[in-house]
Amino acid sequence: MSDLVDFAINAHGGLDRFNKFDFLTARLKQGGALWPLKGQATTLQEANVKIDLRKEWTSHWPFAPTTHHSVFTPELVRIEDEAGNVVEELTNPRPTFEGFELETPWSLPQLGYFAGYAMWNYLTAPFLLTRPGVVSVEVDPWSEGGETWRRLRVEFPDTIATHSRIQHYYFDDKGLLRRHDYEVEIQGNNSAAHYLTGPVVVDGITLYSNMRIVPNTPDNVPMSEPELVTIELSDYKFD
Questions:
Q1: Which of 6, 15, 194, 195 is most buried, by CB atoms within 10 Å?
Q2: Which structural domain range is residue 142 located in?
Q3: What phi and psi, each to the nearest 5 degrees, are found at residue 213?
């Protein structure tokens, strides 16, 4: 493991403190061009999210205009009503995205899969870099906006549902996560640059209030438009 992983984890509160908690919940407000393209413009526009910090599990609610909620794991996604009755479900969801492009619409369980794994990955970073099978190597630094950021090349195992096997994380001189690059395999391998701003400390753990995702270019200089996804996060709570 790169010493940059240790530096970043300590900057975000430390692994020992993070491991004291089991769950994290937050309030979401989401926007951007992606959701209308997928036929899901308002489904999770304003919602709650809960993740399991021990394993890859996520729930979003409500799935507007209903009061339904999702239950995501890499192997199964369910949409349930308030009583826990299954409304829709999708087993082995990843292969169902085969051949999808950026403009291909999603079903509700497919939305639950994407949003589930994405938010689990986003909200557990950088701590997920210590999980079994994750390989991190520090590569050349990157200069942007008058700053120089240290950079990790990360390879994820098949056991973790995520955007792509190879991803890059950028950290500033304080060890805070500033940018995260990946290719979204389930929507045509489109390349994205993901920016994180508004760090907040909750129970000693540093999280982020805003995320902005834009297309990345072959020379690694992101486009300013369109904004594919914007995420505002508030009301964080650890359990």
A1: 194
A2: 3-238
A3: -120, 125
Tell me the pTM. Answer: 0.97
The conformational region for residue 145 under phi > 0 = left, psi -120 to 50 = alpha, else beta, is left
Concatenated DSSP letters of 227-239: --EEEEEEEEEE-
Q: Tell me how many domains the chain contains.
A: 1
Residue 134's alpha-carbon distances to 75, 110, 114, 140, in angstroms, are: 19, 25, 20, 19
Q: What is the mean pLDDT of each run of 10 residues along the chain (239 residues)?
A: 91 98 98 97 98 98 98 98 97 97 96 98 98 97 97 97 98 98 96 98 98 97 95 98
